[in-house]
Amino acid sequence: MARFFRSWEFALAVLLVLELLVLGMINPTFYNLENLLYSTLDFMHILFAALPLTLVIITAGIDISGVSIMGLASITLGLSWVAGVNVFVAAGIALLVGVLAGLFNGVFVAKTDVNPLVVTLGTLFMYAGLAQGLPSLLDLLGFKAYGSEGLAAYQYEGITGLPESFIALTEGTIGIVPYPLILVLLFALVLGLLLHRTRFGRYLYLIGVNPEAARYSGVPIVRALVLAYVLSGFGAALAGVMLTSYMTSARADLGGDALLPIITAVVLGGADILGGSGTILGTLLAGTLLGFLRQGLLAMGVTNDLIQVVVGGLLIAAMAAKQLVARLGERRLNRQALSGRRRG
């Protein structure tokens, strides 16, 4: 407990409470627990994508293709449903697409020396283009029977009219707690156990600290990296499925503006962009803090453009704070070492 009270996660928890208190003073609806829990639906997709991205960043990697995977999963779900597939089976297909996209990223990163940023920048555009062109591609493959104008009619308009049972994924609650919030907490719990209670998690930290030392220690680097990127792809696809349910529409561009908040949530949560540190709890708290901050700013009439400026500033401030804390820690250790030598 003493260690937790000195941790970055505890500081984030305190900041989150203070933020809600301040926002409640500005807008009393933030003091209503039911409204507060329901408002988390606006940023659940950020958490679904950011939580597994933490694993990737711990390895000193990065995956910026998640926002395209969201759209690809969404349009895959919609097109599968239009083609006659049960909507929940279609959701499963969308999740599989996310896993395959993450697998492609992971294999490419693990098997080559290409920087992960370059790899996922390429797949960011590739998956976005595939999502936009998928309806026309399916028409070329002979799916014109489903609709008088073919599936290409859904290329830019989106797919609406999804079943109420699917929409209930985000509208339903247990008591006053929405289903997506319960699901994201369970997802965080599973990822937290993987990261902090399994050998796989230790492998990720070792790879992030020193990949060469990890390799000589017998760490299965390729397998660990591929699994981390697969989980990132799965989380992005899950975000796309839940966002489709929340927006009641399947679109290829869903989640397109989520990249900055996702990365900010991970970095603000304590993950070092250079690898070797980070926690699931930190990302969960930081993502929630950013989500409520965005809602508070919108309630005060701040435009989306200015909110992007605030989030970008937080990202820079978080990275600067991490560097400052690291340098102060090094100085303290050096002083302790010098004082120990003098005593000796």
The SSE string, one letter per element, is: HHHHHHHHEEHHHHHHH
| Alpha carbon gap, first and last residue | 33 Å
Flag low-confidence runs: none
Shape descriptor: globular
Widest beta sheet: strand line-up: 1-2
- Count of alpha/pi helices: 15
Overall description:
This protein has 344 residues and is mainly alpha-helical. It has helices at 2-5, 8-26, 33-39, 44-58, 66-82, 87-111, 116-140, 164-171, 179-197, 199-209, 211-216, 221-247, 259-268, 280-299, 304-343; strands spanning 173-174, 177-178. The model has no long low-confidence stretch (mean pLDDT 87). The chain contains 15 helices and 2 strands. Helix 4 (44-58) packs antiparallel against helix 12 (221-247) and helix 5 (66-82) packs parallel to helix 7 (116-140). Strands 1-2 form a two-stranded antiparallel ribbon. It has a domain at 45-256. It is globular and about 75 Å long.
